[in-house]
Queue: 2 jobs
Job 1
Amino acid sequence: MFELVTPLFLSLIVGGTLVGIIFGAIPGMTATMAVAICLPITYSLGLENGLALLLGLYVGGISGGLVPAILLGIPGTPSSITTTFDGYPMSKKGEGEKALRIGICASLVGGLISLLILFLFAPTLADFAIKFSYVEKFLIIFFALTVMAALSSDMLIGIFSGILGIFVSLIGTYDISKGGNGELRLVPEGTEYWLEGGFSLLPVLIGLFGLAAILEQAEIGMPKGHGIKDIKVGKKSTFSIGIFKGQLINLLRSSGIGTFVGILPGVGGSAASILAYSNAKTFSRNPERFGEGEPAGIMASEAGNNGLTGGALVPLLSLGIPGDSTTALLIGAFTLQGIQVGPLFIGNNPDTWNAMIFAMLVANLAMFAMMYVAIRYFALVVTIPKHILFPVILMMCVIGAYTINYGIMFDVWTLLIFGLFGWLATKLRLEVAPFIIGFILGPSAEVYFVKSLESFGDVTIFFTKSWIAVVLWVLIAASIAGSIILSKKHGEATDT
Amino acid sequence: MGTFTRVTIDFDTSHLLFPTIVSGVLALLGLAILIRDRRRIAGSAAYWRGVLARMDKMRFLGTLGLTLVYFSLMVPIGDFWPNTGLGFLICSVPFVFATGSLLSHDRDLKSLLPIAAISLTGPTFVWWLFTYPLFLTLP
Amino acid sequence: MKLTRRTILAAASLAAFIAQPMMSAAQELPRNVRLVIGSTSTGGDTYQNSAIVAEALADHLGINIKVDAVGASEAFKALKRDSRGTTLMIFHDQSYLGHLYGRRGYEDPFANYAIGPTVAINPGNAYLVPANSPHESMEDILKAAEAGERVRVAIQPGGVSEIGFSAMKNAARVRAPGSEENIVAVNTGSQSDKNQAMWDNLADVINGSIQANEQFTQLGDGDAKGMKFVWITARDATLQQAPAEGMGNTTRDQLLKFASPATSVTLDGEQDFTFDKEFFFLFNPDMDPAIIDQIDTALAEIFEKGDIQKRQKGSFFIPNFLPSKEAKAHLEAKRDTYRNVIAEISGSK
């Protein structure tokens, strides 16, 4: 295998990681997009070199999202939504640099743990993953949805917002490629031409977090400064490894969850960080600090989404089935070279397999090194005057929305619609975090719920399908109970 | 398992099942909020008057208006030179400049100059990047 | 604001001025062409085929062609908006099968669009059963249906994945009228959902492909994921052109055993039903026919040279160039056959 490790191979990994980080860090650009753009180049690079580039892009793209999430409160990619919950409050307190360092370290840990799991257990885990039928997958999604309650400051309104998110995500057709029947619902008459495909996630996301924030600032007359202080000002701003003390379980659990969500085909990448975050909050001794700038929240989110990277490769390389939208593109890289991916891939192509593991390892280390060094350049973003930064962000959001589905103008309008909605939502005291989580998980929740009943024909199947289902119910119950206890405590605290 | 819990899903109408459930739950929760927060909701007219009174109308509505114009013109203009992304470039330059100067507090030459510089270089660089090296479709 | 409006007006009039000569000279493909495809995946077979053709065509004509994976319904919309030849489309049999099955967003492509040349075939469409299934062949499956056994087939409804299932029902009807009732669809989504339906014992037969499922047919005894081919829908003549080494550990000769004539799913008692997934161009109906001629000629020259065939075969596609007129006649005849199959079984779905 070592003859594969050429200077070209290494520089493709590092270069890919760098480009990936940049894509991840620009709101509106995603890891998936970076991989899609570079896919055609890989034909001439050959398989191992091509994969080196794409895996670098993948790891970099997933990681870069934490930068705008922490510094601007705009998630750079869908999987860094939960990073904004604690990262941005930390920035506002003047702890931006510390938050960045925590996020980068957690990303590395998540990436390495998932890589280790991939390397050691890929085929075994794939066999376990196929035990998850529609029923278990629905319960996983349901479990992820329970985080809505934990994230709400007012539980009734929070849950309402989350269900509204699900409702909005169902607008359009019941997607045939996910198992639906292709029929329209919830589409007002006369709007079918635009709405038949529903709203895409990325424009909704950058509308809610990007445009809405710009509108809010415009509304209050663009006060000087970013609302965040210099990223080093805060008293507790100094970062030391000590902050990870007592967080080992959190890091391991979040990386594990991220990896496992990646392994389950069809559950979707964004669910990884959401589940990791909700677990961290449920099992934390200080759950009330989550959402106010709690380092453990950033750790969970970033370990979770980087955990995804190794996980999503498990079903790809041991079943030929992609674990998320980015790995779906990797299949293209294999078929371009005439290589089959399926259950025999690892055994038939040991060199390629080893090269991939090695590339992932280098990509993770390169990501860590580059991002750690670049922190002070990231921080420059905060020094750009807002009246220059905002129009440029908006322009980038337009590009992101327009190119995410390869040139559909309705996605740009979606950005505007949800920018306005996001602005309006805070006025109406609706909660944006549960809304976006409902929106992300809604379509999977639907398919797995309906298909469970369609296939098994009995409501009790949700409880009786397997021991996995029972375990998931226990987790769901714990999460809900945790939220209720927390909200009671919170209520008493504010009453007195 | 009793017959009580059995359900049959007709595939042809299965697209309505989940939306119906979600709509129902949404309506119930909405009703609960309406009852619990009736006082706040009753006072919403005054609340919105306050919001409008405090609003920096020029910047807020200006940004919104400029965005609307920006989005509306991109495709028709780009249609003159199909598949070149020029619609994006031609619309972005004035948009970034206009929005930048609208949001800025100072509109003297010294403040407008950097905005002008960014509005020329930013969109041009991005347009070049996406059209040539990245080879993506822009309006 | 004034500045903006003035700039835009100026830009617009300048644009109109520059555009004039371009429009009068539109006898051939413009310099910048957008090729939309009927799939949203940039890792799938439609994208790969289109990218191969786009690259060859762009090189040959010295123009830029961008492939945009916007999906069927957006692709048709984009094609309908533009008759200048700046937007072209590549898709496969789904374009008319979607219409035949009455799916939303599909119009009759033969009536509403101009059919362009065919470029390639993906010969991979296949049906599989679990490795430990009592059914060894299509013959077993159809006999089981005759004997009153329910056979559940996992498909994605409304197109390419369903047509083989319709053919199975039709064959059952021809062999023993009424037995088609015993072949029932399990409606699923992607390939991973279909595999999962088999492993969850929700389906007895699944639709799949040579490329995605071959490795599952090579797993040892006792692996619960194991599968075996029962039917490959491609024409004998198509499969004969595949590389002799076949796919993975299955040679072309072994693959041929699962296709007609060795494996017979009858169409009418005499002929066998076959289905090749063919990729072809679709154009705006009002596009200048001169552009269609230009594309036909260019492709004829490209296929003459022979390099494109190597790339296609390297990715397990079968080169399949037919100029527009022949392509249209061929696809229409194919559509008529499938329309009859679907009509024959429609009473018993």
Job 2
Amino acid sequence: MSYLDKSLEEIHKALKEGKVTSKELIEESLKRAHEYQEEINSFVTICDDAKEEDITDNVLSGIPYAAKDNLSTKGVLTTASSNILADYVPVFDATCIKKLKEAGAVMMGKTVMDELGMGGTGTTGHTGVVKNPWDVTRMTAGSSAGSAACVAKGIVPYALGTDTGDSIRKPAGYCGIVGFKPTYGLVSRWGLFAFASSLDHVGCLTRNVKDAAYVIDAIKGIDENDMTSINSFNIKLVDNYTTNVKGKKLFYIKELNDELKNSKEYYDNFMKTLDYAKACGMEVTEESIDEDILKGIYPSYMAISCAEATSNNSNLTGIPFGNRKEGRTPDEVMINTRTEGFSELIRRRFVIGSFILQKENQEKLFKNAQRIRRLIVDKITKLFEKYDGLIMPNSDSIAPHFGETNDVMSDKYLLFAENLAIGNFGGFPSITIPSGIVDDMPVAINITGPIKSDSEVINIAAALEEKIGFVPLNVKEEK
Amino acid sequence: MYKVTIGLEVHCELESNSKVFSPAINGYTEAPNSHVAYQDLGFPGILPVANEEAVKRALKVSMAMNCKTPDEIIFDRKNYYYPDLPKGYQITQMTKPVGINGYVDIDVNGEIKRVDIHDTHLEEDTASLDHYDTYSLIDYNRSGIPLLETVTEPCLHSKEEALTFLETYRSLIVYCGVSEARSDKGQMRCDVNVSLSETEELGSKVEIKNINSFYNVGRAIDFEIERQTEILQNGGVVEQETRRLDDETGETFHMRSKVDAVDYKYFIEPNIAPTPVTDEMLEEIRKTIPMLQLDRKRKYMDEYGLSEYDAEVLVKVKEDSDFFQECVDAGADPKKACNWVTGMLMGYLNENEITIKDVPIKPVMIKELIDLVDNKTISSKQAKEVFECMIETGKEPNVIVKEKGMMQITDDNAIHDVVMEVLKENDEQARSYNPEKTRMIDFFVGQVMKKTRGKANPAKTMEMLREELANYNK
């Protein structure tokens, strides 16, 4: 087995002992990236000129990683998988990228995503569809599609992703890896191409929980460029890492569980995971939440995210930068650039967002969505007074086949469509880990905890991970 | 005649080290696109960081206008597309402006009028555009410069009131030290709303946008009053619309109608966490607000007994007024201090086209100079000489008087000796002395001054000469 397929600690140890070099790891990573590109299409850009780094005491030093293509990388093409930014080369690094550089980590590529982060299928990027490494006839989900695929496939040990509704955790679940979105503000958003600022998070996709602790420890911290970033000097994920979670209290939501009963295998998997939780010495309790509130998550998420997105992406006019289309007047330039630059799905979201923000609709649509958001957050926060975390099925299905689902919004109240957005609504730390196999595809569960309880969330996930004993795809394939 | 109602929206750039949401320099430069940070170009991934200094300056103006301040500082996005707006939205304040419901008193020909302030809010300026025949250029230096927009209630009823408000507001800004507020540098711009009505109810609002000088505000108001009067007199209806002023002709032209009004889709800027406004913070700021122009003018007239003209001259420039006040605070008689400041001092400054900061003179020196004249150490004529030396060198008046040997002879015996000497030397004239002929006594005073090289106290000399001449012929 290549060192690339091991955990960060193991790779670091091997680097320290000289069993492998940074150069060899990078070469191997680039080789795999090219080799699997046609099969899974996880990269927009593969950085063939990636250089080895000195091995320091930092566990990340010398090890290659991939970053989602909506993170600003100085001198490296960053497209957000949109035609409108097809040639955009940023002039500054996102804070998370800068911090990884400082840690000696080596970025070897930029991963495909759903266009501008909007979408949950991994099929809307301008360079094509991302395929699930477990079964290439299935999608990865998104929007951090390429990041999930390349980590699952073993191209890199970890990748950076971003998460506005479930964009890290959903694809992580479908690809049988770990996806972690820390507390809002823990990682600076400077350099993250904004989708919905009040919901956007930077996080990571890894193959085990402890690796996530290492990555977030490296990129977190208060940032003078991000007024919403928080002081987190006392949050030390690696230092406080333990699988001893005896006495921790979890709750699950009755209404979600009832819904899941329709699909027996997923339900069984979730119940088995709850048994594991109990086996770890944790208390698990069922809590009921008004179904009307739960039904409100999907529409209010859509309202808030579309509204913020339409404003956030108004900078893409082709005037100061971007893929400009000519016109006779500046207005025409902007109209042509935006018409040709965005796919139909994106334009649809912008129209919805604009509609929601219109003076006559704001109160009913935007402000009400914010009220529902507040209701949900208050309810969950109240429950967190009694519990250390919420445990949820990550999804009510395995990764769908292409064509089975699309990003056209549904008019139905779907409980599982956006259940993970609870974490974004409240800025709660939220981690998804694989919980087993159904129909030869991975299924996953999610742990979400109170604000700033990132360490506890990591540890609960780590304890479950140990009990579940999931074998990642790359390791399985090597065998 | 129709009742004219005017409301103003005044934009003023604030001074600060950096721009309001980016670290780029907030300062004038000839070189286009040189004071530009990533934020000012709206690059993907940028985030705003609110400039504390600019917020405090905005709060200062808000408080100086007696506005109600908010409990926290938050910002809103105003969404619209324009080539000079790189982010596609402007960060401004809608939900909680830095000030609401304030007022500013203005002096319209001696009548005090209270102008109600609807609100004042902090926002970022746009880039500036230069249009040419076949292309346009964008300069992002202005993008992100802190801008304070103050909106009055529609409570002004003539061009004169509007212009007086603008002058008063400008002086308030300058007195608060938050901006030079110069329209020739584009630091002040104005939107004017004009409506005419026969009743108490307001007529249709016509807005004239982006006027770049007070002079043009006056022209726009004149033109609109005339235009709307004509429409109404002919039985027509004034359309609610936005117009622009042609600088060349002074005429206004249609820009857009009410139906085309832009929906700016305001919502709270999610990237700027709310900052609480504490009482301590407000108190700190309040301490820095100086007494304003009109209050000073009233004080000078009521307390110091100065004429309206003098008071106005003194308060025109804050630094001059500060200087005058310090003279008085140092113990100088207000009227005498006023004479020195408005006369010799301002004369010198105007002649040399400099400001009070450019001369080494200190208020306490004026006080000393007045004292030297009052206690007859020097004559008022000498005082002028001392002043000229003082303003050039910054030396204290006492030092100058000593250096120039100007100390008057006030010792009675010394003067008496010289007086007697002069009489003896001019025996003939002394004998023919006639108290009716004032020229005669001037001659003797002149002789005494000649002998003492001007140091003899003139009043004493005169007194002594009269007495001795009267005795001389007995």
